[in-house]
Design a protein that fits this description.
This protein is of the alpha/beta class. The chain is built from twelve helices and eleven strands.
Length: 304
């Protein structure tokens, strides 16, 4: 009886402590081979998949994808998924799929961008995106986002939640209440221990490319959660061009972002998958999105 009680107590302590320990210290344990796994911006944007479903948001998603694809001379993969309801697909749904993909192809050709439209039939939207990404070897996925999730979605998973949790490639989750071409400034807000060094470097290079193409000013906010500087926290900052304004801050990320964003700013954040029961993009990203409903937001999610 004493042994069984001890085992139960050990399991209880492990279940409670392990997620907290992993989240707090796990990303500091950088593997020796990390440098060899880093990819260049050209590799990241070589094959960009964009699910299109809403005509009102399709244009901004495609414009963002085209900006990234053209720089790397990659391929745009517009995707539309029809849900298979016991083998019946209405003519109206098929017509909408044809129109959405046709518009995407037209926009790509107008920008002199290589394009491969994907018309897919699947059981659910999220599985259609995941399977198409794997089958067509996409290197990056760009999805639209409403800026928040319900508790039910956190628990059972929304389309975005399932996509970012199951995909093995980075995902750009975007919300554009105004045209992307109106962007005057890009505010990249990163907190220590959010990403590994090599992923931070990838994010910085990607955002610098976006700023150059949009002719927008870039500002970097680097939030320190502890006052002690270590090599782990200083390496990513070295990847930022010297002419880019960089602020080292402390405190709450949503509060610091709120203090520094202005009208027509594009807010760029980073995220990794959180535990079930929490938003897949993290509470900070949702707090910032809800506090700034009129700002465009881009969240770069890396698989864990």
């Amino acid at each position: 009886e004493l042994t069984v009680n001890g085992i139960i107590a050990m399991i209880l302590v492990s279940c409670v402590a392990s997620p907290w320990i992993t989240e707090r210290w796990g990303q500091r344990m950088k593997p020796d081979s990390a440098a060899s796994t880093a990819i260049t911006p050209a590799e990241l944007t070589s094959r960009v998949l964009v699910p299109v479903a809403n005509p009102s948001t399709e244009d901004n998603l495609l414009q963002l994808a085209i900006i990234l694809v053209k720089r790397s001379q990659g391929v745009l993969l517009p995707l539309h998924v029809l849900i298979d309801r016991e083998g019946f697909i209405s003519p109206e749904a098929r017509m909408q799929q044809t129109q959405l993909l046709g518009k995407a192809e037209e926009i790509a050709h107008a920008s002199v961008t290589q394009v491969e439209p994907i018309a897919r039939l699947d059981s659910t939207i999220d599985l259609g995106i995941i399977r198409a990404t794997n089958e067509h070897q996409a290197s990056l996925v760009i999805c639209g986002w409403k800026g928040y999730s319900t508790y039910r979605e956190n628990l059972f998973g929304s389309v975005i939640d399932n996509v970012v949790r199951l995909l093995s490639v980075p995902v750009l989750i975007t919300r554009f209440p105004q045209p992307i071409k109106n962007t005057q400034r890009i505010v990249l807000a990163l907190a220590e221990r959010q990403l590994s060094d090599e992923h931070v470097v990838e994010v910085v290079k990607l955002v610098q490319t976006l700023a150059e193409e949009l002719k927008a000013k870039l500002v970097v906010l680097w939030l320190r959660r502890s006052p002690v500087e270590t090599p782990f926290q200083m390496v990513p900052i070295d990847a930022i061009a010297p002419e880019v304004p960089t602020e080292r801050l402390a405190g709450s990320l949503p509060r610091r972002v709120a203090e520094r964003v202005t009208q027509d700013d594009l807010i760029v954040l980073a995220a990794t998958t959180h535990r079930v029961g929490q938003p897949a993009l993290g509470k900070e990203a949702e707090a910032i999105a809800q506090a700034h409903p009129n700002h465009s937001i881009l969240v770069i999610h890396y698989p864990t």
